[in-house]
Amino acid sequence: MLTPAWLEGLSLGDPISADPLEGGYASKTFRVRTTLGRSVVVKTQDNLPPDLYALEADGLDALRSPGGFAVPEVLRVTPHFIVLADLGTPEPSPTYWEDAGRALARQHRRTAGKFGYDRDNYLGVLPQRNPWTTDGHAFFAEHRLLRYLEEPNCHQQLPSEDRRRLERVAGRLGELIPPQAPALLHGDLWHGNLLPAPTGAPALIDPAVYYGWPEAELATLLIYNHLSEALFTAYEELHPLTPGWRERLPLLHLRELLCITAHTPDVPDTVNEIHTILKSFD
What sign has the CA pseudo-torsion 233, 238, 241, 243? Predict the structure, then answer.
C-alpha cells in the first residue's frame, strides 16, 4: 500500500515501499522508505474520528520534556493519516530499563492542580473524557471505569452482577486507593508503547495523555510482566510510592480491561479477568 500524498511537501523523496508494522489497535502502521534513502512511519485507517491523529500529535508534544522519554517527531497530520519520524529497530542501551524508570518518574513529577486534561482525546477509537476534576477518586470512577458500562460491547459481555460490582467498587475507591497528586500520564503505557529510540534510550509512542494517578500508569506497565524490575527500582528512587501499590494494581488495571472489552465483541478471557478482579475488591 503506497500513497504518494503521505509525503507531499516533506522533501523526503517519493515512497518506494511500505512495510507493515505490528502494534496499535486503531491504525494500519507502515515503515515507508523513499527514493532519497529516508524512512518514516505512517499510521492510517479509514473511518476513524477526524481529530484522532491531531490529538495523538498533541499527546506526543505534551510528553516532550528535558530528561524525559524520547518522542518521535510529528512530520505531518491529516484526518486520514499521521507521519512520524522513524525510530527504527535499535537495540536498547545497557541502562535502558533504569533510564526508563527515571524518565517515567520525571514525567510523573509534572503535575496539575486537577485531574483531567485541557481536551478530550481517545483510547483506541473510543473517546477518553478528560474534564478537569478536583477529586481524583471521582474522576477515575466516572471517566475511567463507569463510562465503559454505556458501551454496547461491555453491556453485552459483562454479566449484570459484574456491572453492579463495578459500580460498588467505583464507589469505594476512596477506601481502596490512597490520595495521589494528578501527574502527567502517557495514558496507554503498555510495554508495546515503550521502545528504544535510535540512541538506544527509551521512547514513547501512541499516547492517550491526561493528568491522573501515577499508580494507574504503573498498573498498565506491570500487569503484563514484560519489563525489568530495574525500571521500578529506578522509578522509586525519584518518585517513591505508597506501600501496597503492587496489590492495588489489578484494581487500577480494570480501566484497560474494560476498554479492551468495549472495543471487542468476543473477549471471554478479558471478561473473566474483570470478574476475578471485581470479586477480589468487592
Answer: positive
The amino acid at 199 = T
β-sheet bridge partners, residue 74: 84
Output phi, psi for 158, to 5 deg: -85, 125
Q: What is the pTM of this model?
A: 0.95
Q: Using DSSP, state whether 70 is helix, strand or coil.
A: strand
Of 111, 174, 119, 164, the residue nearest 141 (C-alpha): 174
Q: Is 188 among the residues known to form the active site?
A: yes
Query: Which pLDDT tens digit goes with each residue over 116-174?
Result: 999 999 999 999 999 999 999 999 999 999 999 999 999 999 999 999 999 999 999 99
- pLDDT at position 225 is 66
Q: What is the 3-state secondary structure (H, E, C) of 84-129?
A: EECCCCCCCCCCHHHHHHHHHHHHHCCECCCEECCCCEEECCEEEC
Give the active site residue among 58, 86, 162, 188. Answer: 188
Q: Among 80, 57, 65, 77, which residue's Cα sits nearest to residue 205? A: 57
**202 neighbors 103 (Cβ within 8 angstroms):** yes
pLDDT digits (tens, 9 = 90+) for 179-206: 999 999 999 999 889 999 999 999 999 9
